[in-house]
Design brief:
membrane; receptor; transmembrane; G-protein coupled receptors family 3 profile domain-containing protein; mainly alpha; rod-shaped; 87% helix
Length: 146
């Protein structure tokens, strides 16, 4: 049994449409979530919205220019590439930005800890010097009293 290509297109578009609607629903529901562990839910939602926008533009155009295979293929390929680049950029760029900020903060923390350790060692040496001088003064005072 062979289905006409129009029926197959309708089934595929219907299935993908249901998945997109479900994705929009999930993106909308997680939009208000403010958890540190799920800090990229807003960007995932924006990625889903971009996919929906590009699908709304691409599906009718691919159906209109269905007779011109080369043009349809080029347009759909460009749209898929653009959609993938936008989605990955929306998810990965903020993560990389966060990682770089943590690295800067960590390096500053290491520098301050190193400076703190150096000053602590210096303070301990100074305290040891004072204790040694104190012992010497005690010995001198004991000798003077004898």
């Amino acid at each position: 049994m062979q289905l006409p290509s129009g029926t197959i297109n309708q089934v595929v578009f219907g299935h993908k449409g249901i998945l997109l609607i479900f994705g929009i629903f999930l993106a909308y529901e997680t939009l208000r979530v403010r958890l540190k562990q799920v800090n990229d839910s807003r960007f995932v939602g924006m990625s889903i919205y971009n996919v929906v926008r590009l699908c709304i533009i691409t599906a009718p155009i691919s159906l209109i220019f269905g007779n011109q295979e080369n043009m349809t293929f080029d347009f759909v390929s460009l749209t898929v590439a653009l959609c993938s680049i936008l989605s990955m950029s929306l998810i990965i760029v903020p993560e990389m930005k966060e990682i770089l900020q943590h690295l800067r903060r960590d390096s500053q923390m290491v520098k301050s800890l190193t400076a703190s350790l150096v000053s602590r060692e210096e303070g301990e040496r100074h305290q040891q010097r004072n204790l040694n001088e104190n012992e010497q003064f005690k010995k001198q005072m004991a000798e003077m009293e004898d």
